[in-house]
Amino acid sequence: PRDNQSGLKHIIDILKDVKGISFTFFNSKDVVRHPIVARIIDAYDKAEK
User: Fold this and answer.
1) What letter would DSSP give residue 38?
2) 17-45: pLDDT as tens digits
3) CA neighbours within 13 Å on the CB side: how many for 37?
4) Quick one: CA torsion of 3, 15, 26, 43, rounded to 10 degrees?
5) How far apart are CA 30 and CA 23, in angstroms?
């Protein structure tokens, strides 16, 4: 739901300063396997704006 924070975003906020834990973020330019995956990422990015 739009009025609830994503569980993934929540856990990133909780764990971002824990030593030994890191996060890697990808965007549609990083996708090289299948064009549909890039379109899915673009759709998520558009929905968040």
Assistant:
1) H
2) 999 999 998 887 887 778 888 898 889 88
3) 9
4) -10
5) 15
